[in-house]
Every structure is written in structure tokens, then in C-alpha cells.
Amino acid sequence: MPRIGAFVCWCGTNIAGTVDIEQVVQAVSEMSGIVYVKDYQYMCSEVGQNLVKTAIKEWQLERVIIASCSPRMHENTFRKAAKAAGLNPYLVEVANIREHCSWVHKNKEEATKKAIALIRAAVAKASLNTELIAKEIDVENRALVIGGGIAGIQTALDIAEAGYQVDVIEKSPSIGGKMAQIDKTFPTLDCSACILTPKMVDVASHPNINLYTYSEIESVNGFVGNFEVTIKQKARSVNLEKCTGCGICTEKCPSRKSKSEFDEGLRTRGAIYTPFPQAVPNVPVIDREHCLKFNTGKCGICEKLCPAGAIEFGQEDVLVTKKYGAVVVATGFDIIDLDKFGEYQYQNHPDVLTSLEFERLTNAAGPTAGKFIRPSNNKRPEKVVFIQCVGSRDVSSRGKSYCSKICCMYTAKQAMLIKDKYPDIEVYVFYIDVRTPGKNFDEFQRRAVEEYGVNYIKGMVGKIFPAGDKLIVHGVDSFTGDTLKIEADMVVLAAAAQAKPDAEVLGRKLAISTDTNNFFTEAHPKLRPVETHSAGIYLAGACQGPKDIPETVAQAGAAAAKVIGLLSKRKLVSNPCVSVVNEDLCNGCLSCLKICPYDAIAAKELATNNHGITSKRIVAKVNEALCQGCGGCTVACRPGAIDLKGFTNKQITAEVDALCH
Amino acid sequence: MIRVKITPNNKQSQLQYIREISGVNINKCIQCTKCSAGCPASARMDILPHEIIRLLQLGQVEKIFHSKSIWNCASCFVCTERCPRNIDIARLIEAIRLTIIRQPGKSKFKPDDVPGIIDDKMPQQVLVSGFRKYNR
Ligand SMILES: Cc1cc2nc3c(=O)[nH]c(=O)nc-3n(C[C@H](O)[C@H](O)[C@H](O)COP(=O)(O)OP(=O)(O)OC[C@H]3O[C@@H](n4cnc5c(N)ncnc54)[C@H](O)[C@@H]3O)c2cc1C
Ligand code: SF4
Ligand code: SF4
User: Fold this and answer.
1) Which residue among A177, A204, A215, A655 is least packed, with the fewest CB closer than 10 Å?
2) Strands A642-644 and A579-581: what pairing?
3) CATH code of the domain made up of A335-498
4) Taking CB atoms and an 8 Å limit, are A394 and B39 in contact across chains?
């Protein structure tokens, strides 16, 4: 029996509040193999770690049990401490008595019993632990950024500036994201295009950045340092190299029925189109669904007119496979569909707009060239009503339970933009609460009230009825308890922000998780906000949760720093907890090969010599660089020939036995 | 109007009764006022639906008991349908009415009165809800 030391952490009151530490220490000291037990308030602190190190030396400990929080949190911390004291780090075993015990129980007596049982299991397992040696693996020093909004743009620029190659994959024909659609930006009211487009050009011209627009992720294989990603470049039908961006084709295309995605459907575009004049790359795409040539075989006007001969109707989707050391997900967000909010007439009335449509309507480069007019009659509105929280903080099936975070600020911005140009227009904002934490944010919103005279009304709108050419807005002012009727000319709805509809699908390809609202989940809400639970995959921007531009850019920089840190290591230490095949027991059925999600198992031919007769047979072989130690193969193997180092069948059985004790 | 101090313990038993028979958690209300803003009967209410909930949160059931609003509520369920916090306001108001009606002697709508007011076109439902609502 090896000499085992156990360390029981209080985690302040996190554990000690629900688990009787004294009783645990007493019980553990009586377990077989235990030669030393110590409890401490914060085992992960320097003092705590030193307790472990000193005890390893003084008591010649051969195994260490840490009863504390989840191994996800601090296993590495204690492995390092053990290593520093001369013990192989894989001889450390963590018993999770916080997440698996104190946090989920209220009854102290029961929780204490469970904590003791969990430690007993860890002791049983640790007795069978063996020294494991980690190997080194190479790191591919190129990064992949998925999504070309401001988050992706900033991440790519930061990584490229540090000297690494970056590929950016953007689903739509141009990079820029939502920020390209926005008119002015809070809290400074500087023009969005003026601060964004130079960055877009930087991305396009940076020698270290390679753009794949109109492209998507097809599949992702591999692991940190060695991802293998297949990219689908959708057929653009226009040759990227030949096109000069003259725009003749987009002007002359006779198919004009499609709604412009960039202008939120407020204007139509041709079947061959560039989303907006400052698009990067400035090369059109053909929307094959609406192209006459693709639908009827006739037309081809663009091909005839194009002076560069760039139109290629015959293009097909192309798959490209490349290797990357790190991946950053920056796929952004959407606003919700308002079809469930019938009381606001969005579907029925052209003068009821979403916030994003409003951005296009006030934009100098927008469908009205910045002229502020009602879509229904092209006249300037006299009264405009903004409604905040449409679908936000809404726990019913129509909305989203969270606060969308950006709407209070952009609504104040939009209200001010109107008052700034047209002081005579009456502007009302209905709100539940005004939430403006952020540098200079509250001052910004107060300016709308105090300087611009925007009428803020604490209350909601219950219904809107069109009457003649007016929209009758029925609301309540909660301070006075008055019901209000406003004859408005335009209503702007601050629709809730939501995750991209395909986030979950992308998440599955990358093996990263999404939360209940489909936003990507960070590894730790406080301490690891840009990492995911998959090593080497990071998050930036609104794909992780609603965010404004300053926050998005800060997170993008942080993600880039993580990537640079990873790529700057030429070698990574691999996880030694990988599968091994016992060739004597393996019968070559290769069930393991089929089940392995990482393609880490291959067939190997083995020559055997049986009393002078040589014969050949097939056995499974594990590629240690690819194996992630998930253990799937060990349960698929009928003869029990494949085992996982650090989590052997014997160890698991010992744990279960100890729990049932 | 009498100014009342915030006394959450005031009328605890009635408040508890209203909570129990409605099954509604009044603490979920964020006072957005959407219920009142969409209420077709609000013109004849002295206390608006969102104010009813606020008063319940403050434990001031007495004010609600004396209001016209609970009897003028049309039970149309628009508030319930649109509340972003999934609060069944119509059901809550019904619970308040029942709390009053179920007290001894409070039910003033007598079956004997029915023949006098009934006509051919009156749907049965009106009588049923009439017994519920107009019997003070
Ligand atoms: C009406 C409105 C007004 C706003 N005004 C302001 C303001 O004034 N100031 C401010 O600070 N913030 C404002 N915001 C917030 C701002 O839009 C966001 O902070 C910002 O756009 C977030 O950037 P992002 O790159 O994370 O996401 P996005 O801008 O959404 O960009 C994501 C990009 O990824 C691409 N993508 C998505 N899925 C995939 C995929 N599977 N593969 C490849 N590419 C993909 C998208 O096509 C897009 O180009 C406003 C938002 C709205 C709705
Ligand atoms: S071929 Fe298609 S894209 Fe080209 S001009 Fe005709 S309709 Fe437009
Ligand atoms: S609609 Fe719901 S949340 Fe809003 S005030 Fe009424 S009850 Fe409260």
C-alpha cells in the first residue's frame, strides 16, 4: 500500500458551511493507506499549496488526495505543486466535495457522509495510480477566426500584428457584421463606418491575414495546437481575382426583387450584388435563387457587360482543408423576429420598425440617403415612439429571459439622432428600467432627457392601432398611473438580441457548449471569460452574450492574447491519460475504431509466431497525439483489451467498490 | 386617499389566501405596466392592473378590496396573454374577487334576482360570471 496524504479544503464556507470538516478529517485518517491528513481554509492559496509540498517531503507521501472543488478548477494547480515537491503530478487525485457535494446539498449530516464517501473513492483510485509522463506535441502556428464582425476583425488584426498567420471565415459576402449597418455609435456618436471601414481595409491588406468570405465551416477535427478544419467556400459566381469592383453588373442586373439583407429589407437589390459600397472584398456575388440565368437559362447580362470577364456561372462550392493551432469563434448575434408581437403591428405596418431598420433609415448611406422619412408615405414624421425591451426580460415563450444590454443605450442614441437633426419632432421612449452601466453611459442617456428633451416614460406600450395615417400607441406612465394615447407617425421597437440560429450546430462541430439561450459558454464566468471548455478554442464578441462595441473589442483583444500565448509555444505538453491496447487480448474487432470521435485509433498488422508457424493478425493501435482520453473505446471493447491510463478499469472499479462500501 | 406605510405583514392571511388560490408568484412582476397598457377596461379602473400587483407586493390588500377595478375587470385575459413575466394577472384578480365573495354574507347576487334581469339573448356564461363578479 502506498503512503497516502489527504488534504481537506474548507473553501471558506463553501465547503465548511455544509460539510463537517472535523468529522471528515477523523474519518479519512482511519482509511487504509492514509499516513497524513490536513485541513485548511483555502488549500489552493500559496499557504495551502505549501502545506501539500512540505507534507510530501516530510511524510514521504507517494499519493496525494485533495478534497476540494472540481478538478476542472484546480487539478492543475495541485499537480504543479506535487511536481515541485518531486512527486509525479499524476499521482494526485482530486475528490470533488464542492460542486458534487457541498454546493448541491443542504443537510450537513448527509453532505458530510457523502464527502467522506467521495474521499474514500479517491483513496481507492489513488492507490492504483501510476506515474505518467506527458509527451510533447507540435503546435501549428496559424490561427482561425470564425466570423468577420468587429469581434473577428479585431482578433484577427491583433494576432496578425503579433506575427502569426490568421485566416478569417465570414459567412456573408463581406466582413463588417452589424457594426457596418449601424449609423452612429454610442457613447460618443462617432460614425460607425468611419471607425470600422479602415479596420476592414487593414484586414484585407494585412500580409498575415487571409480572408475567406462567403464561406462556412464544414467540419473540425483534431485538438489544441493541431486543429484540422475544412472550409466550404460557397460558389460566388464571380472570380475574386479578376473582378475590379466596377459595379456595372450590379447596376444592370434586371432581377431586382430580392430584399437587401444589409439594408434590412428596406430596399431591393439585384441578383448580383455587393452588400454595401464599402464591402470587403469589394466583389459581388450572385444570389442563385433569384438570378434569371440560373432559373430560366436566359439573361447573362452581367457576363456580357463585365469588362474584366469575371462572371463565372459554372463555379462550384470548394472545400479547403487547413491546419490551425487555435480557433476563435466570433459569430455575433441577431435580433429576434417580431412576428409573435402582434400587438405592435410590426408585420402589418411599414412605419413600425426594428431598431436595426432604424439604423439603416437614419444612415447617410442608407435607403433614403439619410433623409428621415416614414416608409409609408415618404413624409417626415412628427411624433416618434421608441419601445424598449421588446422581447427582452421576457420569460414567456415570446421572448428572452435576459436583458439584451445594448438597447437602453442605442435607443437613447437613436432618439438623440432624431432630435439633433429635427428638434421639432416629438420623441417618446417607453422603458421598464433604464440600464446604463458603463463609462460615460449614464451621462449619455441623461443628455437625451435633459438637453434634447426626449420624453422618457416609465411604462410599457400595450397595443398599437393604426388609425388613418397615424399609429395610436396605448401606453401607461407608471409614475402617475395615467394611461396614455399617443398619435405617432413612427414606432421603433428595440427587439431583443439573440444568439445566431446556427450557433448550436457550429458548437457541435467545434465540440464547445452553448447555454440555454444558445450563446456560447465561457470556461469560467469570472476567471476564464474568453476560453471555452475545449482547449485552444476561444470566444470573442456577441456570440458569447449581448455586448456593445467597446466590450466586444476588449474581449477580442483578450482572445487574441490567449491565441498569441498559445501559438508562441512551439510545443505543447500532451495529456498522458490516453488509451493503450493490450495486444495479447485484442481480437481485432475494431469496435473502438468506430466509436472514437477523434479518429485516434487505427488497425495494425501484427506478426505472431506460434510454435514456428508465423501468422498475421489485426490489432487496434492508438495514436497518442490524437487520443483525447474520453474513454469511449474502453467501454466498447468486449475483451477489455483497451484501457485508459489514469482511469483504468481497475481504478474505476476500485472507486465504485469504495463508494458502495 | 389615505397614505399607508409599507407594511408587508399587513393582512398576511388574505394575501396568502390570494396567493394560494391563484397560484401566482407576485414577486415575478417587474412593474413594466404592459398589462395596464393593453387592458381594454382600464378606463373604468381606479387602480390599474400593474398597481394591483404592486399593492399586493406591498401587502396593501385593503386598498384593492375597496377598488372598483376588480369588479370592472372584463376577465378578457389580455394582460395574462402579454405579460412578459408569465404572470396570470386575470387569474390573480379573480382570486381577489373570490377572497371577498367567499366571506360570509358577501355574496349579494341572489338566484332569485335572475329571472328579473335575464332575457333570451343572454348567454349562460354571463350568468355564471355574473355570479362570480357582480354579487357585492
Ligand atoms: C440596432 C443596434 C444598434 C447598435 N448600436 C451600437 C452602438 O451605437 N454602439 C455600440 O457600442 N454597439 C452598438 N450595437 C451593438 C453592436 O452591434 C455589437 O456590439 C457588435 O456588432 C458585436 O460584434 P460581433 O462581431 O460580436 O458580432 P456581429 O456584428 O454580429 O458580427 C458577426 C459576424 O460573424 C458572421 N458569422 C455569423 N455566423 C457565422 C458562421 N457560422 N460562420 C462564419 N461567419 C459567421 C456574421 O455574418 C457577421 O459578419 C448595436 C446593436 C444594434 C442591434
Ligand atoms: S445573369 Fe443573373 S446576376 Fe447576372 S444580370 Fe442576369 S439575373 Fe443578374
Ligand atoms: S405585465 Fe406582468 S410584469 Fe408587467 S406590470 Fe403587469 S404583471 Fe407586472
Assistant:
1) A204
2) antiparallel
3) 3.50.50.60
4) no
Using alpha carbons, list the distances in angstroms from residue A325 to A211, A301, A320, A494, B131: 17, 45, 17, 40, 74
Same fold, A4-126 and A335-498: no
What pTM, to 2 d.p., does this model score? 0.86
Phi first, then psi: give them for residue A465, nearest 5 degrees. Answer: -120, 130
The CA-based angle A499-A505-A507, given to 5 degrees, is 75
pLDDT tens-digit profile of A594-639? Answer: 999 888 899 999 888 888 888 899 999 998 878 889 999 999 999 9
Each domain of chain B, given as residue ranges in start order, spans 9-103, 109-136
Compare CB distances from B37 to A393, A433, A474 and report the shortest one's residue: A474
In what side-by-side order are the strands of the sheet with A470-477?
A461-467, A470-477, A482-488
Do A63 and A88 contact (CB within 8 A), yes or no?
A: no
Quick one: DSSP state of residue A172? S
Architecture (CATH level 2) of domain A4-126: 3-Layer(aba) Sandwich (3.40)
CA distance A325 to A280: 26
CATH code for residues A579-645: 3.30.70.3270
- Cβ atoms B49, B41 nearer than 8 A: no
Whether residue B52 has its Cβ less than 6 Å from ligand 3: no
Q: Which of B39, B51, B86 sits opposite A462 (nearest CB)?
A: B39
Cell (9 digits) for A509: 462541430
Chain B: give the shortest CA distance to residue A396, in Å: 5
- Listed by start position, the domains of chain A span 4-126, 142-234+317-332+501-567, 248-305, 335-498, 579-645
DSSP assignment of A430-457 equals: EES-----STTHHHHHHHHHHTT--EEE
Smallest CA-to-CA distance from A463 within A441, A496, A485 is with A485
DSSP label of A102: I
pLDDT, tens digit (0-9, with 9 covering 90-100), for B24-60? 999 999 999 999 999 999 999 999 999 999 999 988 8
Report the nearest-CA residue for atom 8 of ligand 3. B29
Domain B9-103: which topology? Fumarate Reductase Iron-sulfur Protein; Chain B, domain 2 (1.10.1060)
Size of chain B, expressed as the number of residues it contains: 136
What is the distance in A from the centroid of ligand 3 to the CA of B130? 26
Look-up: residue for cell 402617475? A480
- Ligand that lies nearest to the alpha carbon of residue A327, given by its number in the listed order: 1
Mutate to test the pocket of ligand 3, among B83, B88, B91, B92 (most ligand atoms within 8 A of CB): B83
Q: What is the DSSP string of B87-127?
A: --HHHHHHHHHHHHHTSTT-----GGGHHHH--TT--HHHH
Interface predicted TM-score of the whole assembly (ipTM), two decimals: 0.81
Alpha-carbon Rg for chain A, nearest whole angstrom, is 31
Predicted confidence (pLDDT) per residue in A211-247, tens digit: 999 999 999 988 899 999 999 999 999 999 999 999 9
Question: Which residues of B fall below an 8 Å CB-CB distance to A?
Answer: 28, 30-39, 42-43, 47-48, 50-51, 78, 82-86
Model pLDDT, residue A627 = 87
Given CATH 3.50.50.60, say whether it is the number of domain A142-234+317-332+501-567: yes
